[in-house]
Design a protein that fits this description.
By secondary structure, the chain is of the alpha/beta class. The protein is built from seven helices and five strands.
Length: 174
């Protein structure tokens, strides 16, 4: 059985820190596609958000399709639906490739990490806390609109967040 758990939330919610902690504990994780793309090609996407969202989406699909070959528990630093939310906000529409994708790949559960104070790390496209909160709210709305009932992970020390999430997952694979 393949179980995919999405960790999502607005900018500065601690997703990367939590993913790194899960990795240290031996859980298989998929790193954030947007961060991978932006860290290596930031100049390529200057003011071209449509291309950016398309490339992030396709990269995420490729990474997730590799998981389908092996049963297990996986944690994903964002899911494909994050691209829908970001597209709505940044572009005012969703590019055709993203909109027409059936999004039939279901995630077992979606965890929304509540936000921490906004800090610009140099890779962010959002300008301030208000914009980060709007992204956070749109992410939640998008997952709910696709039938998910996200589990909200409160702000607390990283070990407590990790325990909170692990208490909500299925680890016994048959």
């Amino acid at each position: 059985m393949l179980l995919k758990y999405v960790l999502t939330g607005g900018p500065c919610s601690g997703k990367t820190t939590l993913v790194n902690e899960l990795r240290k504990k031996g859980f298989p994780v998929l790193s954030e596609s947007a961060r991978e793309i932006l860290s290596s090609n930031n100049h390529k996407y200057k003011n071209n958000y449509e291309k950016l969202e398309r490339d992030i989406f396709l990269h995420q699909l490729k990474k997730e399709s590799k998981l389908c070959r092996k049963p297990g528990v996986y944690f994903l630093d964002r899911g494909t639906l994050d691209c829908l939310a970001y597209s709505k906000l940044l572009l005012g529409y969703v590019p055709k490739e993203i909109a027409e994708h059936p999004h039939h790949e279901r995630y077992h559960k979606v965890f929304v990490l509540e936000r921490l104070p906004f800090i610009d790390d140099g890779l962010r496209i959002e300008k301030d806390d208000a914009e980060a909160q709007k992204i956070h709210d749109t992410l939640v709305e998008t997952y709910v609109s696709y039938g998910y009932n996200p589990i909200h992970v409160p702000v607390m020390p990283i070990e407590d967040r990790l325990d909170f999430i692990l208490s909500h997952i299925t680890t016994n694979i048959k």
